[in-house]
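This section describes the prediction task in plain terms. A model, or a person checking by hand, is given the sequence of a single protein chain and must write out its three-dimensional structure as a string of tokens. No templates, partner chains or ligands are provided. The sample shown here is typical of the held-out split.
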Amino acid sequence: MGRPVKEKSLSRQDVINAAISCLDKEGEAALGVNRVARELGIKPPAIYKHLDGNAALKRAVALTIWQQYIQWCHEQTKGLEDPHALLQAGGQATRNFAKSHPERYRTMTQFQLNLKDVETAPLIQEVFSFLKRVLQPYNLSESKLIDAMRTVNAAITGFIALEQTGLMTLERSADASYQIMLDALVVAIQYIQQVETQS
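The expected answer:
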């Protein structure tokens, strides 16, 4: 038997990995079947055996990046139990992921996760599970827990979005400001714990 034809030995994960490589090098515009086929040295129809077009390719890439990000955060927070330490480590892990993989982070955060989607629901539950570990000692009601989760998420993702778009133009260190923000989130959570819940 001769060497297997590359198209025949190609796996779905090979296609996704090649797409992520294109994304890292060229940005979201590179997430197309034709560009990924060139990266793999194959003809585009070979990709359609694994992913049905550009939309399916982008979805598979986003889901894979979410999984990578969650694994990254698990590694960065391993062994931590103190809620404040967890919040600090989780916040720093998210920013470090965005700095190390800016195009992946942008693609990941632009992809909408949906609890009714069987593929994305487990990813949402993973993120919720981490936030619940951070917030568990505060014994928040369901509505206050949602408020706290939204506050933490908005602060961290908002800061990173400003940083990635180059809007941190003042001379104050962004690292110092980010640390202050993470500390301030603890105060914000305590406020949510104490404030009267409004409908």
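For orientation: The chain has ten helices and no strands.
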